[in-house]
Amino acid sequence: MKDEIASELGLSMTAFGIMASMYFYAYMIMQIPVGLLADNWGPRKTVTTGVLIGGIATLLFGFATNPVMLFIGRFFIGLGMATVFVCLLKIQSQWFSSKMFATLSGMSIFIGNLGGAAGQFPFALLSLYTGWQNSYLVIALATIISGIACFFLVKNKPEDVGLQLNLQSKTSEEKWGLIEGIKTILRENRIYGATTFYLFNQGAFISFVGAWLVPWLREAYEMNSTTAANLATFATVGIMIGSILSGIISDRIKLRKPVIIIGSIICTCVWGLMAFWKTDDFFSIGLMLFILGLGSGVFPLSMAITKEVSPSSLTGTAIAVLNTMGFLGVACGTSLMGIIADWGENLSQAARFGNVLIVCLVFSIMSSVASFYSYETHARNVY
């Protein structure tokens, strides 16, 4: 779809990269406001409003006839969708024991990616037969219906349906002012190892896989779009399995830091292979992408650490601060990769994507370094 949008609206690779990153900039900007809304206004109202905004923005994206409409639509899609994950984790923290947080976070990411993977083929078919704009209009309608469903189906906490589960600590009942809540999280030095890890981890994986993986496979290995898209699913499957496995293992052994370190080192090794080693064996390429996703899948543990060093009543705000860093990494990474992909007039497209992979390798090295500074909570709240 990248080629269709870029050619129809006259976007260079730099412009396409910036357009793609608008989602992440909006997502990043909204994280702390969403966290505060989830903690104070409640996740049900917050996610309903956000999903409806995202649906309306998708309509604008689908009707885009010029780059300005495209950019604005993409930005407001990110603005609306920024509410979903933080509210999900806030609800999760209210309905389930804190001992299960990493496992449940991994399961949530697994299910989310499963939906994304399952939707790729139908969406590709829809785009093929109806065009990219009409396919986005269908997505817009489905999103608006989902937003309405959230209002009627989502419940903030067990007490909303007459249950008394007594899962929360005393700090879950504390009330914080908006500014006081942000200051409390930002003063907590123990979050910064996890947030820095998350920034560079997401900045490498999500930026590249989301915008540049399929073009790289087409240019570097001379694949057709279908083959490249099929191989790209190995990375998605890897991160799905990695997210749920890392959560289960971490909760079982009651350790966060060693799992994050191992995953980070694995990612760095694979990024190095992808940047400096070329093979024509499809199995080897798929295996590299799968292992890359598997290693990247340890990122939910940074969410667990951030939650566990923060007051329970500020779970939404704490996760929002972490997500702000993660999507800052993705937004900057996507834009930077677009600039690098356009740079070098005398270089082939394959060589330009090789330079993009070096950016990913540098990001991954930084993520690995930061993983050694992540705080070990032993899978319990230590605030």
Strand percentage lies at: under 5%
Question: What separation lies between the terminal Cα atoms?
Answer: 46 Å
CATH class reads Mainly Alpha
Oligomer: single chain
By CATH, the architecture is named: Up-down Bundle
Query: Which parts are unreliable, with pLDDT below 50 for 5 consecutive residues or more?
Result: none
Average pLDDT over all residues:
87
| Shape call | globular
Total helix count?
14
CATH superfamily: MFS general substrate transporter like domains
Rg calc: 20 Å
Series of H and E elements: HHHHHHHHHHHHHH
User: What's the number of structural domains?
Assistant: 1
User: Biggest β-sheet, characterized?
Assistant: none
Structural class: mainly alpha
**DSSP summary, beta strand count:** 0
Q: The CATH topology is what?
A: Growth Hormone, Chain: A
Keywords:
383 residues; mainly alpha; Growth Hormone, Chain: A; 14 helices
Describe the structure.
The protein has 383 residues and is mainly α. The chain has a single domain, classed as Growth Hormone, Chain: A (Up-down Bundle). The protein has 14 helices and no strands. The protein has helices at 2-9, 13-40, 43-62, 67-95, 101-130, 132-153, 178-186, 192-221, 225-253, 257-276, 282-296, 300-308, 315-342, 349-371.
Give a brief rundown of this model.
The chain is mainly α and 383 residues long.
